[in-house]
Design brief:
The longest helix has 21 residues, at 118-138. The protein has a six-stranded antiparallel beta sheet. The chain has a six-stranded antiparallel beta sheet with strand order 7-8-17-16-13-14. Strands 9-10-11-12-15 form a five-stranded antiparallel beta sheet. The protein contains twelve helices and 17 strands. With 396 residues, it is an alpha+beta fold.
Length: 396
């Protein structure tokens, strides 16, 4: 066992010393040396979360694997280590989730000469997690992994929006959350953001006016202003006021951003809310989906000097919140039929047994299926939050 754990230490040193674009080469050499691996592939989830794209020197030259119908996809969806027989029944192929604090990146696929022991599986899973952390750092210095995630070219607006995200998932003992944007490769004005601390989880879902680069610039300013205020230690009402002022100063009321801003108190389950526009929050509690209604306030940047008032509600252990932009709850199929509240409620209920990140993807997938495989006419965002904190019950 100590020999296996030595592999973790050696791999960590080698990965940290590696050139950013060479992480997979270093991991492949480690697995060949310590586990007699005969092949090693890194598969990264594409922006739509529909396929796993192999990382190669020339992106998109290898065949992607569908997430819905492959063992690698099932390992990614469930975030579990899965094995299958190797090609020609030689050895075994192990699929190892690559994730960082709940943010699912992809799968490390390794072919081994024999089924690994429990101890070896533990070390292999640790190596995959270690690779995930190094990938996040490496993306600051190389485009390789971002390129590998692209099944098609991103629009400039979509490039801006994806770079603005904190990630696509986050998990702590007290809560877990995940989000997804569509149309993934041409998204313009919708976005989400979050920040965690010992005391709070802050989540925003925003819907900027317009389309394309104009909408992306508008939302970028709104998210940046909210972050600036949050990092200055302001409460959510003042965060909204500062962002409102920044947007009005730039656009004079001609453009605005609809935003739902929530701040969860980790110790109590109290949620402070600023409802400044069209995003909606739905709660799944004990199998029942219901819309949480708030006093509507003006979108950010619509008028000069708007004052925002914080409202509040409580979450309880086992609650799931699903926050959607109007591109979800007012979406229309190509036939003109509106997606509507009933379909959304059904999608939320149908995904209730899935983890938060996978549930967000599943709800978006249901919406895309409703559109019969065509791109959405309006930007759409789904953020799913699972509240696990047992201390919330005492605070309620």
């Amino acid at each position: 066992m100590s020999r296996n754990h030595d592999a973790l230490g050696h791999a960590e040193k080698a990965l940290r010393a590696s050139a950013p674009h060479a992480l997979l080469d270093v991991m492949r050499a480690t697995l060949q040396s310590d586990f007699a691996a005969t092949s090693v592939d890194l598969l990264l989830a594409d922006y739509r979360l529909s396929v796993l794209q192999p990382v190669t020197e020339l992106p998109r030259t290898a065949t992607p694997l569908p997430i819905r119908t492959t063992t690698a996809g099932r390992a990614f969806t469930a975030q579990q280590v899965l094995l299958e027989p190797g090609p020609g029944a030689e050895g075994v192929v192990i699929h190892l989730p690559v994730a960082v604090r709940g943010d699912r990146l992809g799968i490390l696929r390794v072919q081994l000469p024999a089924t690994p022991t429990d101890g070896q599986r533990e070390v292999l899973a640790g190596l995959a997690t270690m690779l995930g952390h190094e990938l996040i750092v490496a993306e600051r210095d190389t485009d390789l992994y971002l390129q590998a995630r692209r099944r098609e070219r991103l629009s400039l607006a979509a490039e801006m929006q994806w770079q603005l995200l904190p990630g696509r998932g986050c998990a702590r003992t007290e809560y877990s959350l995940g989000g997804q944007l569509e149309p993934a490769y041409t998204i313009g004005g919708d976005n989400f953001d979050w920040s965690t601390s010992a005391e709070y989880l802050t989540v925003t879902v925003s819907n900027g006016m317009g389309q394309g680069i104009g909408a992306a610039l508008l939302t970028n300013l709104a998210i940046s202003a909210l972050r600036n205020a949050r990092r200055a230690g302001l409460d959510i009402a003042d965060q909204a006021c500062l962002a409102d002022q920044a947007l009005y100063a730039q656009y004079g009321g001609a453009q605005h951003v609809s935003t739902l801003l929530l701040r969860f108190e980790v110790a109590t389950g109290r949620v402070g809310v600023i409802d400044a526009g069209s995003p909606r929050a739905l709660r799944l509690r004990e199998g029942v989906v219901e819309l949480i209604s708030f006093e509507a306030q003006l979108p950010l940047g619509m008028f000069d000097g708007t004052n925002y008032r914080e409202q509040a509600f409580h979450v309880e252990p086992g609650d799931r919140l699903v926050i959607v932009s109007d591109g979800v709850h007012t979406a229309q199929a190509p036939t003109g039929t509106e997606y509507g509240t009933t379909n959304l409620d059904l999608a939320i209920s149908a995904s209730s047994n899935l983890p938060a990140s996978e549930a967000a993807r599943a709800i978006i997938t249901e919406l895309l299926d409703y559109h019969e495989g065509t791109d959405l006419l309006d930007d759409a965002v789904v953020v799913c939050i699972d509240w696990n904190n047992p201390a919330a019950q005492a605070g309620h």
